[in-house]
Amino acid sequence: MKIILSLIFLFSYVFSTEIISAWNVNAGKINPHLYSPNQMYAQVMVYQGLVRYTEEGIKPEIAESWDISNGGKTYTFRIKKDLKFSDGSPLDAYAIQSNFDAILENKSRHSWLGITNKIKSYKALNPLVFELELNSPYVAVLNELSLPRPFRIISPGAMINKSTKDGIKAPIGSGPFMLEESVLGVRDVFVPNPYFSGKKPQISRLVMKILPDAHARILAFESGALDILVGRDSISRENFKRLSQNPKYQMVTSKPQGTFQIVLNASRDRPTSNKDLRKAIIIAVNKNLIWEKILLQIDPKADFLFNPLLPFSNVGLEKVPFNVAEAKKLLKDKKFKPLEFVYIANNPTQKAIAEAVALDLSKIGLEVKLIASEIISFYQSQKNGNFDLIFNDTWGNPYDPHSFIASMLVPTHADFTIQKDLTNKKDIDANIYRILNAYGDKELQQEYTNLLTALHQSDIYLPLAYTLVLGVYRKDKIQSYHFGNMESEFLFEELEIRKKRE
């Protein structure tokens, strides 16, 4: 009888610590060195970097400490002892060197990231020391080594012919979780990594159901089929406000992350190449009304490309006032063909804002054609410039501002597209290159002041909010949960299960 009771207790314990959430797509193959369709939240859960970005700054992760020498060009990392990957294989400096080999074999794919073009050499000096040498100082080295990708470390045994650019055998990392099962379009299941060197998660399984429709995710949560929902677009602002009225649920928010904005395409083949038109659009959009009625005053209002609280970003710019009369003056005697505004079809917030902007611009004589786009074609439109207006985001901590401005130099994101035909584009690029090669705070601050002023005066950014990541969980199942410091860092390993009463 005692054995049966023990088994019942064990069975109930295991399944009581299963947490069920949902995501819009599968996590992918979870290759740490590649991008979509690999989901960043999963890359953060499965893999670690040399260092970790925290609220207090950069902290140790795989590396226990590091020295910076040679005028900011040499980084010497001391690796923690006895680390293992989730398959039990050793995680040492030689494994890190193998990862850098694989990442830099595919260097062109990562050229948007400043550190990629700074690396001169790297090597394992012994099993516990890894040395990284740069061709010039770069202030964002540690920040970029902490990112969700590509500088995360996979077991060399999981690579294919010592490479990851064409895929991996399996997602074998050293993070708090490992992938147990993935069923396309149905679920991904994560379980604790038995070799994780940090605090062990309380949960025995994390089941991430695949529910592409945001409304379906909310219905599943309210029906009790889900325990927690977190993520940038997992909960609409309307549902966040509504669910906050229910005492059964606990609402959580991250700290402000990237800037949610509309960008205007200054490419010479678009009507928005006209600077008066761009200026008119920016001052004719009633941002306060959008913030109040659509964003529901949840996220802090944004007036600039980067939150002034970020390093080097408070440069004394003036807010652009809402001024319909001035917008009409700028467009007097000018005619433009209908403007194409692209948004993600299944994103209700983008749809509502696009409709509000179209209404505002109709009041100054502009016609706006709204184009609902599937997510893949949306990002393709950003890249190829097939838009006049489109939604865009900066990337939050720790990308902003340094890594984000580095990405403006390469044709992979909307920012390159909207800037490429600006009359001062060469000056902007030269300014960015100086930032990427600067090391002293005084020099960096001056260069950032010049850059952010030039971009602000180019009338290509219409900032709306400094975005919060939203979450909700069931109080009867979860005691506490909090976000990490990156937008895609969900910290399920620190989630606390509510203990059942005896």
Automatic annotation (TrEMBL):
Membrane-crossing segments per the record: none
SUPFAM superfamilies hit by this protein: Periplasmic binding protein-like II
Top-level lineage group: Bacteria
Coiled coil: none
Gene3D superfamilies: Dipeptide-binding Protein, Domain 3, Periplasmic binding protein-like II
Cellular component aspect of the GO annotation: outer membrane-bounded periplasmic space
Record GO biological process: nickel cation transport; peptide transport
Domain Solute-binding protein family: 58-413
InterPro entries tied to this protein: CntA-like (IPR011980), SBP_5 (IPR039424), SBP_5_CS (IPR023765), SBP_5_dom (IPR000914)
GO molecular-function terms, A-Z: heme binding; nickel cation binding; peptide transmembrane transporter activity
Protein name per the record: Nickel ABC transporter, nickel/metallophore periplasmic binding protein
Originating species: Helicobacter apodemus
